[in-house]
Amino acid sequence: MAMILALGPVSCLGPQNAPSVSDENDYFKVAPMNERIFSDHFPLAEDPLLVNPETRDILLYGAGGETVAFQLIAGPGDGGEMNLAFSPMTLVRALESTKNDLGATPIEPSRWRVYRVLEVPISNYDAYDARLILPSFLTSRSYPDPLAPIFADENGRFVIPGNSQGQTLLWVEVDIPSKTPRAMYTGEIRLEWSNKKMSRPVRLRTWGFDLPNPGVDIFGLVDAPKIWLEHEIGELRESDRLVLPPDRQRTEKLAELIGEYCRLLDEHGIEPWLTRVFPKISGTDPASMYIDWEGYSRLVEGVLKNSNRARQYWPIPADLYYPSTQMYGPYSSELYGRILKNYLRQFNETLVRPGVIGSPVAIPIWSDSFEESVSVYHASVEWMKQVRESESPAILVHPFITTDLAPMGWPGFKSFDASMSLAGAVCPEEKWLDPAMIGAFREQGTRIWWRLSKSDGTLPTLKISYPSYFPQAIAWTVGRYETSGVMLGRVNDWPGLKASAIKDYGRGSGNILIYPGEWFGYDKPLGSIRLKMIKRGLMDAAYLKALKNAGRGELADWLTKHLVRFAHADAFDGSIWTVRNDGLCNREQAWMLAPMIAGLELDGLGTRSAASQQTTSVSPTTQKTFVENDRLMQRLYESQFRDFAQGLALETQGVRAKNVTDVKTGRQKIEWSFHLVARNFREGAEKGIIGFESIASPLEVVQSDDSLNLSGLSWAWPVRSTLKLQSPGVALGMFGVNTQWVQLKLKDDTTVDLECRYCALAGGKLDKMVRIDGHFDDWPEMPSAVAGGFIPIRSDGINDRRLGQIDRVARRPTLVQIGYDERNLYLAFTCYQPDHERFNIAANTVECSAGMPWGEDLVAVVLDPDNTASLNPLDAYQVIVKGNGNVLTFRGTLEANRMRASERWPNQIRAAVANFPDRWQAEIGIPLADVDGTTKINRWWGIDFARVSAAVSELSTWSGTANQYARPVSMGNVFLAK
After folding, report:
1. pLDDT digits (tens, 9 = 90+) for 99-124
2. What pTM value is reported for the model?
3. Residue 374, SS3?
4. What is the CATH number of domain 217-577?
5. Domain 647-758 belongs to what architecture?
6. Longest Cα separation, the chain
7. How far apart are CA 965 and CA 649, in angstroms?
8. What are the tens digits of pLDDT across the range 226-268?
9. Long-range contacts for 96-100 (Cβ within 8 Å, ≥24 apart)?
10. Any idea what the Cα angle at residue 143 is, between residues 138 and 145, rounded to 5°?
11. If pLDDT is split at 50, 70 and 90, which confidence band does 711 have?
C-alpha cells in the first residue's frame, strides 16, 4: 500500500518544537499515491484510508518484498537546505510470534529511498513534429514525473536543496524485508526545514507473507540509436537504426549508457529489449561474409551486468531492414536466405548456445504502431519464412494480429491471413484484442504479448497527460485479458537531441519512462513516477497471484473485473473502436483498496492456519480478537471498494432528426431519436427504466409511458435503446444547440442522469452562386443558419484531474454558415484565432489520432445525406480543408490503412482560405451531385463540423462527439429547406 505525505507552508512553529496534532493540519497532508501533485496544486483533504482521523498517524500496509511509497511536499521556505530523516521502524505488537520470527529486528532507515520529483515541460505536439523552436504562444505545461535520487549522508539524513520560490516535491519509499512477520511497526518521519523541526508517526502493518512472483512479463523496447544520438556518441547513417562501427571506445561508452538505462527498467520489473542496433556485416558472399560481433557483445554485457534477474528473452538483431534487401535482394531470394541463415547461425554460436542471453525472439518490424499495409504484411511473412528455414531457435513473433470486425458494422475490414503456423508468439495492439482469439492462441500454446503503443486504444497508454494510475493498470490488464505479458513501446522515445520539452500528442504522447539525466543536470538517467506506477501494478499482480495460490482466485477475479472493466464487453459491442471513458475504474481509492483487501484476506488465512497448528505464542483470546477485527476491516474495505468501483454508465451515441407524418392529422413533424447506451458495473443483473426527465414545450414523447424498459442489464454488457421526441412543424431558420435530460432508474431507486446535447439548423437556398475565395462577400448579411458553440473533445488530462471537470467551451470559437443553390452545398467557416497562433503544414496530408484529424490548423465537415444515423463511417462523406487551403476528401475515417474503413471519393469540391488579424476563414463548395444529394432537398441530413486549433492543442466539434467522430449516428442535423 502506498500513499502521499504532503507538507505545506507553516509560520507558527518555533525551531525546537515538534508540531502538535492540532497544528499539523496546516502543513501535513496525505493523499493517494496515484494522485499527481502539481507545483501549484496542494491537496486539501486527507483520506481516512491513509490517515487515522483522530491521531493522524500515517497508516501503511505491506507484505515481505513489497515497496511502499509516498510523496512529501514542502512549501516555499527560506531557501536553506531541507533535512529529512527516518527513525527505525520497531515492532510494537506481534500478531503472531514463533521461535524463528524476526519480530525483534527493526526496519532500518537504510531501507528508505528519497527522490526529488522534477518537472518536465510538456509541449504541443505540432511544434516538434514540424521541427520548430517552441514559440511562446504554444501551449506548454510543467508535469511532475522525473525522479532524481537523493542519497543519505553519514548521519542518515537526506539533504535536499531549498526552494524559496515554490513547493518542493519528494518521492519517498521503503522496502519491507522478506520474511517480515505478521506485526505492527511504528516509526517516525523527521523534517528540518526553514528553521523548523517537524515529525509525524508512521505505522506499518505487515501481513506476514512474502509477495510471490507476479507471473506478468513486461518487456520494454530500448531504442539504442536514440541513446547514441542523445549522448552525442556519434552520428547515424539511417535515422532510426544503428549499425555499430568498429570503434571500441564508442561502443564501450554506448554499452555503459545502455546498461544504466536497462538497470532502471530491471529494478522496476521490466525486462529491457535492446532494439534497432546491429553488428556490421562486410561482404556479399554468404561463405566469406564477416560479421563484427565484438561491439554488439559489449552491449549485451552492458545490459546483463545491470540485471538482477535471469533473462527470459533477447531480441535477435535482425528485422525487415537488416540485413538490407538493397544489398542482398528480396526476402524470398536465395541469396537473402543464405545471408540471413549465416547471420543467425553466428548469432546463435556467439550468444545463444553459450547461454549468455535468454531465448531469442524474432519480430519482423520494431514499431510502436504497426502499419498494417498489405506490402509490409507480405514482406513480414516472407521474412519470417526465411527465419524459420534458417533453423534458428528464435521464437517468431507475428505483429499483424487483428480481428474480423465485419459483424460490428465494418464490412470493409477483414483480418489478415495471419500465417499463424509461423508464429510462436503474437503481439496484438491493445485495441485489437479479441477474447475468442486470445483463447484460441492460448489453447495452441502461442504466447500473447499485448502491445502498448503510441496510438490510442481502449486503455490510455503511458500518456504524459493522463493520471499516473493508468500505468498501474498495465499489469492488471494482463490478468484481465489472460495474456502472457506486455510489450511496451520505446521507453526512451525522446523527441530530439537535448530536448527541452517532451512532445505531447494530445491523445498519445511518447512512451517515455526514463529521462536523460543531462536534461536536468544529472550524470545518470532518471526514472519516472510512471515507471514506479508500473512496478506498483506488478506488486498488485503479485497479490492477485498469492490469492490464486491460496485458493482465493474468485476474490482476485472480482477485484480485477471491477478495476479493468472493458476487456470482454467492448470487444463484442463495437466500442473497441472508441477510447472509452469507463474502461478503467477512475476512482483512485478503489485502486488503493484492492491490495489492502487482498492482504487482509491472505493475512487472515495465515492467522487461522497458525492458530489451527498452535504455533503462535499469542493468547487465544488475543488471537481471536485480531482475526475478528481483521475480518471486520476487510468487510468494510470490500464495501468501500464496491462503492468506489461499481456503478452505472449511461451515454448518448447521438441525437438524430427526421420528418414523420402524424397519422392522425397528416401534418409533418420532426422526430428526434436519442440513441442511448447503458452499462451496468454492479454485481448481478439489474432491471431499469429509462426515460426523459422533463420535456419542454412544444416537444412531446412518442411513447405514451414516457419511458423504455431495459430488462436484464448484465455486468458491463452494453444495452442500446432509443427514446423519441416529436416537435410540430418543420421550422425554417431553426438554429441552436439544445439539451435534454434522460434518466436511468433501477429497481433500488438508484438513478443516473444524462444531459444529451443535440444540434440542428436549417440551410436556406441562396439567390446566387457563391464565389469560393474565403471572403464571404456573396453570403447574405443575415444568414439563415449559423452553427456555433463547439465543444473541445481533446481535453487536457492534467486539468481534468485537477479541476474535476472538462471545459465545455472551445477556447478558439468557430462559426459555420451553410446554404445551397441548384448545384452546390456551401459552407463558410469563421475560425477566431490570433494571427500569431496560426500553424500550417505545407503538405497535402494530415496527421490523425484515433481516426480524428490532428496536428495543424484545419476545419472539417462530415455529411450523411441519406440520414442513415448508422455506426458505419463508410456511410459518411468527409471533407478536410487545411489552413494552407489544401483539400482532402474521403469516405470513412482517416486511418484508412489501419482500419480498412476508408474509401476514395471522386468529387469536384472547391475550397479557399483567407487570413485576417483576428481570424481565418475557409469557404467550401460541395457539388450536390458528388454526395448524391440533388434529390435530397427539403430533407434532414446528418452533418458535423470540426476544427483543429494546433497552437492550443484543441479539436472541437459542433455535435460534441468524441469517440464516434465521423460516425453518422453521432452527427448533428441540418434541414435543407426549399
Report:
1. 444 445 889 999 999 999 998 776 54
2. 0.82
3. helix
4. 3.20.20
5. Sandwich (2.60)
6. 98
7. 20
8. 999 999 999 988 878 999 999 999 999 999 999 999 999 999 9
9. 96/181, 96/182, 96/183, 96/208, 96/606, 96/607, 96/610, 96/615, 96/616, 96/618, 97/181, 97/616, 97/617, 97/618, 98/181, 98/610, 98/615, 98/616, 98/617
10. 145
11. confident
Cell of 131: 521541427
Q: What pLDDT, on the 0 to 100 scale, is given for residue 900?
A: 36
Asked if 902 contacts 896 with a C-beta cutoff of 8 angstroms, the reply is yes
How does DSSP classify residue 586? -
> Measuring CA to CA, which residue among 580, 576, 573 is closest to residue 718?
573
CA–CA separation, 842 and 846 (whole Å): 10
Q: Is the pLDDT of residue 7 over 70?
A: no
The helix/strand/coil state of 800 is: helix
Q: What is the CATH number of domain 766-978?
A: 2.60.40.1190
Is-contact 351 313, C-beta < 8 A? no
**How distant, in Å, are the alpha carbons of 75, 316, 317, 343, 344 from that of 287?**
69, 21, 20, 11, 14
Q: State the pairing for strand pair 858-864/852-854.
A: unpaired
φ, ψ for residue 73 (rounded to 5)? -110, 130
pLDDT digits (tens, 9 = 90+) for 757-771: 889 998 889 988 999
- Cα 22 to Cα 42: distance, rounded to the nearest angstrom: 19
| CA pair distance 881, 887, nearest whole angstrom | 5
Q: At 771, phi and psi to the nearest 5?
A: -85, 120
Of 186, 110, 190, 196, the C-alpha closest to 154 is: 110
Rounded-to-integer distance, Cα 154 and Cα 730, Å: 83
Alpha carbon distance 649, 744 (integer Å): 9
DSSP 76-145: --SS--EEEEE--BEEEEESS--TT--TT--B-GGGEEEEEEEEEEEEEHHHHHTT----TTS-EEEEEE
Task: Catalogue the long-range contacts made by 535-538 (C-beta closer than 8 Å, 24 or more residues apart).
Answer: 535/67, 535/268, 535/269, 536/2, 536/33, 536/34, 536/69, 536/472, 537/471, 537/472, 537/473, 537/474, 537/475, 537/476, 538/214, 538/216, 538/218, 538/268, 538/269, 538/475
